[in-house]
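Structure (tokenized):
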């Protein structure tokens, strides 16, 4: 199945404690249908000292479910759904809101 949200996309959170915030996708985990978004769904973890890292409380991003985020339309700066279009034998992602090609 083709990916509707990819690494590097700018997304907006639709539901949860960070609703309305925007961020860039750092990585997508297709097997869990989740994505890690920069500055979204922050968690704090206590970390024990080891040979290559210091002890302390670490704040980092946790994965968020793909159903709770939407691609941000570059033209209108609003959430949009993603469609696919095949033109000249090339499959491209298209923003449903504005009709613009997302990549390529």
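Design, position by position:
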């Amino acid at each position: 199945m083709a990916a509707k949200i990819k690494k590097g996309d700018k997304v907006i959170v639709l539901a949860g404690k960070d609703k309305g915030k925007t961020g860039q996708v750092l990585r997508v985990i297709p097997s869990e249908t989740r994505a890690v978004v920069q500055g979204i769904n922050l968690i704090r973890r206590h970390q024990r000292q080891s040979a290559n890292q210091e002890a302390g409380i670490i704040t980092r991003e946790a994965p968020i479910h793909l159903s709770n985020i939407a691609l941000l339309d570059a033209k209108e700066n609003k959430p949009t759904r993603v469609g696919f279009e095949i033109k000249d034998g090339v499959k491209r992602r298209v923003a449903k809101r504005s009709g613009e090609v997302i990549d390529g």
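Reviewer-requested clarification: The beta strands are 10-13, 22-29, 34-37, 42-47, 56-61, 64-65, 69-72, 79-80, 82-87, 90-95. The chain has a mean pLDDT of 91.
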